[in-house]
Inverse folding.
């Protein structure tokens, strides 16, 4: 269990993290979400003991974070850092040895991971000669090679094509089945919605909303409908029944006013637009995210 209690981090006159608390149990993916500048990276760096908190405490397995715990943590940062002139095997051995892995064990595990991610043929290739996606794979291996108990992924799918994204998702799910503690920080709300069971949304260093994805969606259930249409949707955008609308080409997510029946709304719009699809849906995490951040600004 990772426990963050009343964490505060101040840089000169900037309050980057403002009294936040959360717990991350094993066997779950915990989504640390928020817009740019929300305080996510500062929170992560504090957990990793890279920077010291102004106040608050962080516990791992009931103990304060100490130097010996750092070998139990894996971190995939958003900003990638690889020694591009070095060979893949040399880079991976270097980072494995930093985590106190024995040379023989490190070499064996590196080859297992290179085969698993289908890049064993690049074992003796320089990093700079790899594609961006394969460089990402190398950095992913660096974060998990020592079999950490806690893994923090910061935008882990950046630079991957859809096939490789799916491969990495499956690996992350395998870590969950092993009982590892996973923190996922991402701007991709669709990805977070598919992977995370617990959400902590922050903005301007503060907690905005937290809890299970299921409970958060229930709180924002409202009157949401999804439509697919042809033609101009402006004829319904200004209807009094519409509380808010998000349009994407010929697809729209609509939040109806609280007392509006979706079935009556359907009848009213059938003569206004060419409707191809209509369904009552729960709000997406992306919709919840946008609405909460907009509310914070107002």
């Amino acid at each position: 269990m990772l426990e963050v209690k009343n964490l505060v981090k101040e840089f000169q006159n900037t309050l980057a993290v403002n009294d936040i608390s959360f717990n991350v149990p094993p066997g779950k993916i915990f989504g640390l979400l928020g817009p740019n500048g929300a305080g996510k990276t500062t929170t992560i760096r504090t957990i990793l003991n890279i920077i010291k908190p102004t106040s608050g405490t962080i516990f791992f397995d009931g103990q304060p974070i100490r130097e010996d715990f750092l070998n139990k943590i894996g971190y995939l940062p958003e900003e990638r850092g690889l020694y591009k002139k070095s060979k893949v095997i040399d880079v991976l051995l270097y980072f494995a040895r930093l985590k106190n892995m024995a040379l023989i064990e490190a070499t064996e595990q590196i080859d297992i991971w290179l085969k698993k991610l289908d890049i064993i043929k690049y074992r003796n290739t320089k990093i700079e000669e790899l594609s961006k996606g394969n460089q990402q794979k190398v950095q992913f291996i660096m974060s998990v090679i020592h079999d950490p108990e806690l893994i923090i992924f910061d935008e882990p799918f950046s630079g991957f094509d859809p096939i490789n994204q799916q491969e990495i998702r499956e690996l992350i799910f395998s870590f969950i089945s092993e009982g590892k503690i996973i923190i996922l920080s991402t701007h991709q709300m669709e990805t977070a919605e598919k992977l995370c069971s617990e959400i902590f949304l922050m903005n301007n260093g503060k907690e905005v909303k937290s809890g299970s994805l299921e409970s958060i969606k229930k709180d924002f259930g409202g009157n949401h409908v999804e439509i697919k249409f042809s033609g101009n949707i402006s004829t319904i955008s200004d209807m009094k029944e519409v509380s808010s609308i998000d349009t994407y080409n010929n697809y729209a997510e609509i939040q109806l006013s609280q007392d509006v029946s979706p079935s009556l709304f359907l009848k009213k719009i059938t003569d206004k637009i060419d409707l191809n699809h209509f369904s009552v849906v729960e709000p997406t995490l992306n919709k919840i995210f946008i609405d909460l951040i907009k509310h914070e600004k107002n």
